[in-house]
Every structure is written in C-alpha cells, then in structure tokens.
Design a protein that fits this description.
Layout (H helix, E strand, L loop, with lengths): L6 E4 L2 E3 L7 E2 L1 E5 L2 E6 L1 H5 L7 E4 L4 E4 L1 E6 L1 H7 L3 E2 L6 H14 L6 E4 L14 H7 L5 E4 L5 E4 L1 H7 L12 E4 L5 E6 L1 H8 L23 H20 L2 E6 L4 H13 L5 E3 L2 E2 L8 H12 L5 E2 L2 E5 L29 H13 L3 E6 L2 H18 L7 E4 L10 H5 L2 E4 L15 H5 L10 H6 L3 E4 L10 H10 L14 H7 L2 H6 L17 E4 L16 E6 L2 E5 L1
The structure holds zinc ion (ZN).
Zinc ion (ZN) binds next to loops.
Length: about 550
C-alpha cells in the first residue's frame, strides 16, 4: 500500500495537542484527513509527484483554531462599520464619527462599534446630547463592546419612535432622563432594535440575540446580501487561522444561508449553530425546532445540535445577576431572564432530548441558577455526558466552583474580557462588583484547578476575533491588585482551550482538535514559533496557511 499525500507540511514545530505524541516535525494530509504526523523522514515517504509541500519555516503548526463563542452574522456585518475600539474622549469620538459619516454619505444609520462605557470620560455616561453635538442631522447609534448597551442621538430615537420611551419588556430598558425623554442609552436588544432597524440590514445583525426569532419580509436581494456578508465573515475567520466556529445566536434563517453556502462553494470553516430559546417560547419548541433542526443539519461541516439561552445581561449595564448586591448600588442584584423553576424545566426537557445547553451567565447569581438547572436536569433524567456550557462565568461564587466538575459542565470564557485586559478599561466594572468579588472574577486557573473543562473564545464582535490576539491577552493578563492570585493558564493550556477543548465541547474530540492520523485535516501554520516569542509578542505571530477539511482556506 502507499498513500500519497495531497499536502505535506514540513519543517514545523508541530504541537499536536495529542498527549500521546505531543510534538512532531511534519504532517501529511490525504483528502480531508491527516494521514501521518511525525518526523521529516517518515512523512516525506508519503510524498508523490502531485503532493503539495508546504515549508512551515520553523513556525508552529497547530490544530486549526476553534472559536467556541462568536456571533458570525453580527461580526461579519461589523467588518464594514465604524470601529471605535480604543477611541477615548469626546473629541476623538467626534473626529472618527465625522470621518466615517463623510465617507458613507448614503447610510440611513451610522453605526459605531466597540465604544467603551467610558468613551466620553470616566465620570459621565454617553447621552443623546453628546451624540447630537457630534452629528445632529443623521441617525447615529454606537454600541458598547458587549452589545448589550447602545447609545443613539435624538434624530435616531425620533425616527425609531422611542424618544418618549416605550415598555420593552423585562431585562430591557430605554433609559429615561429627568426631562421625561429618552437619555439616549438603550439597554439590551429589545431597546436597541427599534433604532438598529433603521440600518441597511434592517437590524438583522441582531438575529437571535433579539427576540425576533426569524427575520420577516426577507426579499431575494436581502438574502443574497446576507449570504455575501456571511461569506466575507467566514473568509475573515479563515484568515485568522480558524477552522471551526461555534455561533451563539441561531435561527433557521442563518442555518439555511450556511447550508446554501456549503452547497454552492463549500464552507471555509466548520459551523455550529444553536437553537436560541427565549423566555417567552413554549417548551414544545425544543422538539419542533431544536431537535428537528438537529436532524436536518448534522454534518461535520454544519451542525445545529445545542440550545442557547441568556440568564442575565452585563455588569456595566447593571443587568448581570449577582448573589449579593452590586457594590455601588445597595439593594440591586440584577434580575434574571428566567425564573429558576422555568429554567429547570427547559434544561430538563432539553437534556431529555439529548441536546447540549449553553447559557450566557455573567454574574455569580446567574451562574448559580444555570448550574442549578443542570443539576435538576441530571436529577430528573439521570446523569449523562452532557457537557453543558456556561458562557462567560465572569464572576463565580466560591461555593459554586467545584460544581463544574461535579456536573461535567464546561466554562466558556473570554481572555479578552477581563477589565484591564486587551485595552479594556477597569471601570466601572471593578467598582460595580467590588473588591471582595475580584478573586472570583475571570477565575480561569481556579476553575481549571477545581477540575472544570474550559474553552476560550472572543465573543466576536464583542471583542476582536483574532485568536492570536486573544491568546496574547490570556498570557499577559495582569492582576488588579498586588498579591492577588495569578489566574493565567500556561501557554499549552491556553492553546488547548482554543483547539482540543473546542472539539470536546462539540462532542467531536474523536475526529478533530488534535493532529493525529485519521483525524480531520484542520490545521493552522503560523509564521513564527509561539514557544520562542515573548508573551507580549504573541499577537504578532500570524497565520500563514489555514487548512480546513483538507482544503487550503487561507494563504498569507
Ligand atoms: Zn455572545
């Protein structure tokens, strides 16, 4: 027998993420599978006249990155929007907005992204008056990095019909000022959507995150435009070394668009999309939608096999749910989006259908409620290998730390989110949670040491999607106060949380996430050796080749 390789990658520092064979020099791919991982000599034996040989130039070769928590449609749309990342102060904001507005004279709504809560100053919150002073005559909407809060100018609020306020449901708020009119601050998707709907995508970028379910009145042109947006977004994913993405909002519309792209061009990354269960939906949706979509979309390239939910909002918007009061606001702990009873009922029903559950829980109160629900499901249905996920786990109550291991739950965390990391401000976050909770905030090491499985991701477009940027943030994270515990993981653990653990949480560890013969050929070749550079230089190590399913999806 002689397998002839289609692709050989040689002269690399191959970090396989396979504990049985952790390092190699070369690997070979035939079709969509890895056929050999080993020494230069062993792998060269599989070379033939048609083999494409890639010289890694001594760079690190890894399993393709798995972004375990992103919002692909929203992120893809934002690639063309105004970025306010690291913009600080009124004047800088004004300059950015005016430049972008001048360059985009036909946009019905100017949308800015990644505006810090303190973009105007550390003391004052953005209001419509600030934005009116920048752009009075065209609708303007700027989003906080977490997308849970946005600020609009007066003309945008007026056109959206919400200048005088509106009841937008529990956990959502059009913040009102003393003059009886909207202040400009909009909290959570029901409050933001009336304004975002003025934009060119009709607010469809909030799909799934909002309460709309499926977009309405979609024309053939909308559909084609949305597909184009997704294709650009996924090409961007491939350019960053990603071979798998796990979307955290979902509906049938996005699944169908992805399926069409797969049939027309082939998806450049593996895509996983959930059914998004909201608090007003009937329990029967788990069967008629979640389970039905799972049956319809179940290939290794496009899957719908889990349920996404939100238990709370965000700390800066005071919508995260804590066990004890917010430090700056006695009497307020936040309000959960589901009662414990209701959540337990859904978790139990989803678990019974064999569906994994992933729930956004930022505050320790929300994390506890989610773990309670997983426990209730295990009690009702019997314990199974459920790998239920908690998204973010920004603060955990010390009593709940061991529960991840006990319940087999996975902590899905974002190294680009701790205040003070990746260019984020420390305030108001640290004041809101209070110093007594700092040791339990973004507690990666503590959770891993307690036996929790952990995946890393960016929550794009909440934070930049680049895995190397995120890995650098993980490795350079600083403590908030001298003497605090260092919560960083090792470089190897961090890389595993971006590769092998991502496959585990998708129940695909038997075929991807490590470089091993017989596994799917998902590989990233980096232009440098990650073990040889300083932590602060990791983001400078760029992907030079991305291979997904045996196909080259990116070449520098
Ligand atoms: Zn998210």
């Amino acid at each position: 027998m002689s397998t002839q390789a289609d692709i050989i990658i040689r002269n690399g520092k191959v970090l396989t993420m396979d504990d049985a064979n952790p390092r190699a020099e070369a690997l070979a791919i035939a079709g969509n599978k890895i056929v050999a991982v080993g020494s230069e000599v062993d792998v060269a034996a599989l070379s033939g006249p048609a083999t494409r040989v890639i010289d890694a130039g001594g760079g690190t070769v890894l399993p393709g990155f798995n972004e375990a928590h992103l919002h692909i449609f929203g992120g893809s749309v934002e690639l063309s929007e105004l970025s306010l990342f690291r913009v600080k102060g009124f004047d800088a904001l004004k300059q950015k907005v005016l430049e972008y507005a001048a360059a985009n004279p036909d946009l019905a709504l100017i949308i800015g992204q990644s505006a810090d809560y303190t973009i105007i100053s550390d003391e004052e919150r953005v209001t419509r008056h600030h934005l009116d002073a920048i752009l009075p005559d065209r609708p303007l909407l700027i989003f906080a990095p977490d997308h849970h809060t946005a600020w609009a100018n007066t003309i945008a609020l007026t056109r959206a019909g919400i200048l005088e306020g509106r009841d937008v449901g529990i956990g959502n708020e059009i913040v009102m000022a003393e003059d009886g009119l909207a202040s400009g601050e909009l909290r959570e998707s029901n409050a933001i959507r009336p304004v975002s709907a003025l934009g060119k995508t009709g607010g469809r970028e909030m799909l799934g995150v909002g309460t709309g379910g499926e977009p309405e009145n979609i024309t053939a042109a909308d559909r084609a435009a949305d597909k184009e947006v997704l294709k650009q977004g996924m090409a961007y994913c491939a350019s960053l070394g990603l071979t798998s993405i796990q979307n955290m909002d979902g509906n049938l519309y996005q699944l169908e668009l992805m399926d069409e792209i797969e049939k027309e061009d082939g998806l450049p990354v593996r895509v996983r999309i959930p059914f998004h269960m909201k608090n007003f939906m009937p329990l029967s949706d788990l069967e008629t939608k979640a389970a039905a979509w799972r049956a319809r979309f179940q290939t290794d390239r496009l899957k719908c096999d889990f349920v996404k939910m939100f238990m709370d909002g965000v700390t800066e918007g005071e919508t995260a749910v804590f066990v004890d009061d917010y430090s700056h606001k006695p009497g307020w702990k936040g309000e959960p989006l589901f009662s414990q009873e209701h959540f337990n009922e859904i978790a139990t029903a989803a678990d019974k259908l064999g569906l994994q559950i992933a729930v956004h829980a930022i505050g320790d109160g929300a994390v506890r409620m989610v773990l309670n629900g997983y426990e209730a499901a295990a009690e009702a249905n019997g314990k199974r290998d459920s790998r239920n996920r908690v998204e973010h786990v920004e603060v955990i109550h010390p009593d709940d730390i061991p529960r991840f291991a006990e319940l087999g739950a996975v902590a899905s965390m974002q190294p680009v989110h701790p205040p003070g990391s990746a260019g984020l401000p420390t305030e108001p976050y640290l004041t809101y949670i209070g110093e007594e909770r700092w040791p339990y905030a973004f507690a990666w090491r503590t959770l891993v040491d307690a036996g929790a499985a952990i995946v890393f991701a960016t929550d794009w477009p909440v934070s930049p999607l680049d895995p190397m940027n995120c890995i650098e943030a993980a490795m350079t994270r600083d403590v908030w106060k001298e003497g605090m515990k260092d919560e960083r993981l090792s470089l190897h653990e961090t890389l595993a949380a971006y590769t092998r653990a991502g496959a585990y949480v998708e129940f695909m560890e038997d075929r991807k996430g490590v470089l091993k013969p017989g596994y799917l050929a998902d590989v990233v070749v980096l232009g440098g050796d990650v073990e040889a550079v300083a932590s602060a230089d990791l983001a400078g190590v760029r992907p030079v080749k991305t291979i997904c399913d045996g196909r080259i999806t990116f070449e520098a």
